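writing this on my phone so excuse typos. first protein, seq and then structure
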Amino acid sequence: MTGQVRTVDGRVAGRRGQATRQKLLDCLGEMLSTSPYRDVKVIDVARMAGTSPATFYQYFPDVEGAVLELADEIAKEGASLNELVAGRSWVGKSGVQAADELVDGFFSFWRRNDAILRVIDLGAAEGDKRFNRIRTRVLSSVSGSLAESIKDLQSKGKVDKQVSAPAVAGSLVAMLAAVAAHQKGFTGTGVKQSELKPNLALLVHLGVTGRKPPK
């Protein structure tokens, strides 16, 4: 862990305190993967971490405050999704590879962080601006780079200039996030898991380039 970590009352936590704080966050993340967000209590998180509620309150004002810390960490990780798009070529077979890797990256990110991402989506859906800002941070870097890729194709005459790059990019990223978040739900509708990624990559490629992938 880098940088200063402070307690609720403003004191700088030492190495041991930082380790305790991180253990509390790790335990909270584990609990969120098995229990509804609203059912998680401070005493349960503290007990799982082998400490006391009083220690928990040294670092976080409440469970929601700790959840926001976890969500902020996820947002920082989500910024790396931008690397799947920035500077990539979408011409020819390079575009097929870019679409495939973007879908794979989204699915992997959501699979690793499913529990906290569900809480972020819940908070954003309920109108909590803090969670909404975090969700925007997770997605905006990708949509921004994707929009730049579309604009680059437009400048080369490969995509209609009337297409709104930000609108298409934002829609594609929202689609990726929604499908990644509900992967399991598709099995009940007759969609095979093995069919999701290639067909989603096809839609991404069509959205960015306006063309079918080359064979």
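second protein below, same order as before
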Amino acid sequence: MQVKWLKGTDDLTDAYNIRFKVFVEEQNVPSDLEIDDVDGIAHHIVVYQDGIPVGTGRVFEQDGRYYLGRIAVLKEYRKQHIGSLIVRLLLQKAFEWGAQEVHIHAQTSAVNFYKKLGFIPYGEPYDEAGIEHISMVVYKGTHEKENKI
């Protein structure tokens, strides 16, 4: 497995291809919502298996808060811990930047996945792109103890 970090100004074709397959084709998110202004300010990660891009995600700071987002793994590569690797590496980057807490807008179907990585849900569920989401947060100290980052 190979991990590649990209800035928003880099060629994001591999990340976009994964996101479109997962979010647009699989989950029916409108294609015009998939690429946004955040892509230009975020740091992106792409995971490759045997040279094939199989997973991606992004981390960014906005208004003093740190966020993860657009975490996606191609269907045929799920259940191989690629998603948790992506989240851990994105969190590590945010904590290196000085974050004390990191937020995510999680699909409610993925809440247990994020809980295992130290995230705590807060607030009420809401609709984002036609999919139910909930806000979640992980705190630096808690995450480091649980996941040894």
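The mean pLDDT is 93. thats all i got for now
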